[in-house]
Amino acid sequence: MIVGIHQPNFLPWLGYFYKIAQCDVFVLLDNVQYTKNSFINRNRIKTPRGADWLTVPVIIKGRFGQLIRDVEVNGTVDWRKKHLRTLEINYRKAKYFEPIFEGLMAIYLANDWENLCELNIRLLNWTLSILGLKKQLVLASSLHVDGESTQLLIDIIKKLGGHEYISGFGGAHYQEEELFEKAGIMLTYYDFKHPVYPQLWTGFIHNLSIIDLLFNCGSESLGVLLENKGGH
Fold it and tell me: Under a CB-based contact definition with an 8 Å cutoff, are residues 200 and 93 in contact?
């Protein structure tokens, strides 16, 4: 079994979903410390002026060290309508605007998620359904595994019965690779080559939120995503 592990990010970039596509099980690391102003609560979209941020406001005052699963969305700010208006202004001319926007709006305005983590998971599952990727998402907190850093990853993989771990290339800077070998787990770094696809406005911008791909390519998005010439 091939396992991938990552924080539950907000409408992540293409490489995040390419990684999911390479896994049998993808674990959402919700039981680690939240990092302020990270991709957990924001991501970039394309506008006529270039890339711009979509940020979900969260409550952090007096909550230093809180876990990702405990982060609350700041309900005093009318960010939902602002996000939807921003997306409408910048993507209404995109080929697949209407169906994608309707799906997003349904999640944004729903009352069946209570915090940032739940919102992100709803958006992840929705995106996977649009892509046609049937993958198992597991919350790390549901596994009741202890440990820190590399050992936490190993303990999660062992709990799931995995034999291989797919890591992003950035993991090479902080992971203790010898621990994977000692645990009998194959460590693989996936090599994602970002595809170029039709975008609105002039000039192609890499590393945007997956939503840019969905608006522009719709049902063809998975094919674009898997055009990647790298490997794992």
Answer: yes
